[in-house]
Amino acid sequence: MPVERSFGELSLGLLKRASYGFLLEPVSLRFVPLNQTIYGYLQDLCQARSDPIVEELRAETLALGPVSNMAIPREEASLLSLLVSLMGAKLAIELGTFTGLSAIAIARSLPPGGKLFSCDIEPRWTQIAVRYWERLGLSERIELKLGPALETLRALPRAPLFDFAFVDADKENYELYYEELLPRLRPGGLIAFDNMLREGKVAESPSSDPATAVIHELNRKLAQDRRVEGVLLPVADGIYLARKVSTGLLPEGVSCFTRAWV
Ligand SMILES: C[S@@+](CC[C@H](N)C(=O)[O-])C[C@H]1O[C@@H](n2cnc3c(N)ncnc32)[C@H](O)[C@@H]1O
Q: Radius of gyration over alpha carbons of the chain, in Å?
């Protein structure tokens, strides 16, 4: 169905309701279903700002074959850079380095003296990452932690160190990663979880895929968890942004959809 039509029909539906005397639905219920044309359009906009060395890394990653699907797309890289800048983050951690694209997006937005710990288990991919970090002058700013991410996390002090975390490693461990990251995140700090839509499979319940079942449970948990406020963004494969609330818990009655003032 052409996008203009589906969007138009949705708007018409809202108007019809109004003429029957019902309240208009909030405009935020509108959405634009992505198709290849619109997706290409927004990718082009991101590419226009991209760096030739980063584009070279994208090409080298693509040449790895189907595994290249693991890399974050350009618009997600832009979002990560923006979030890190907006937060004024100084210390960040990511779980899942792969060939280093998300690390570059995060590290480039850190101030001088800022640091990103980038965790992965597979040197085959991270040696590509390290090569490009050097070329981009980011080696000082990114510290690679090779090994199972859960062990790396548990070896860190259980203190509110980090401003920003990006979770993009093995999906089965996401809930454990969350519980290890939260005490290590400063109040007001942000965790961004990647692949929280699992290509839409999270909405099919019950899911036969164990990793999708974990993600589905984590989405539900985050939506109710009063230690964080958050939103699931339909960007790329779904990014859940969870901000640690500043004073312990969200008050009763304040949901994840309510802007928290704590
Ligand atoms: C989806 S990729 C990360 C993509 C990366 N963020 C990017 O932007 O290109 C997932 C990565 O997690 C790593 N990984 C899988 N299991 C892991 C574990 N238990 N501990 C640490 N890293 C793990 C894989 O080796 C892989 O490189």
A: 20
**The tokens of 261 are what?**
């003032």
pLDDT value of residue 259: 34
Tokens of 243: 């901000």
Residues 16/8, Cβ–Cβ less than 8 Å? no
Whether the CB of 98 sits within 6 Å of ligand 1: yes
Q: Is the model more confident about 126 or about 32?
A: 126
Query: Which CATH code of 3.30.230.10, 1.10.3720.10, 3.40.50.740, 3.40.50.150 fits the domain covering 51-244?
Result: 3.40.50.150
Report pTM. 0.87
- Weakest mean pLDDT among 41-45, 60-64, 213-217: 41-45
Report residue 218 as tokens. Answer: 């984590």
The CB of 72 under 6 Å from ligand 1? The reply is: yes
Indicate the pairing of strand 162-167 with strand 228-233.
unpaired
Q: What's the Cα-to-Cα distance from 35 to each of 4, 71, 157, rounded to whole Å?
A: 11, 20, 45
DSSP string, 169-203: S-GGGHHHHHHHHGGGEEEEEEEEES-SSGGGGGG
Structure tokens at 22: 């019902």
- Assess contact for 128 and 99: CB atoms under 8 A: yes
What is the DSSP-derived secondary structure letter of residue 235? S
Distance 122 CA to ligand 1 centre (A): 8
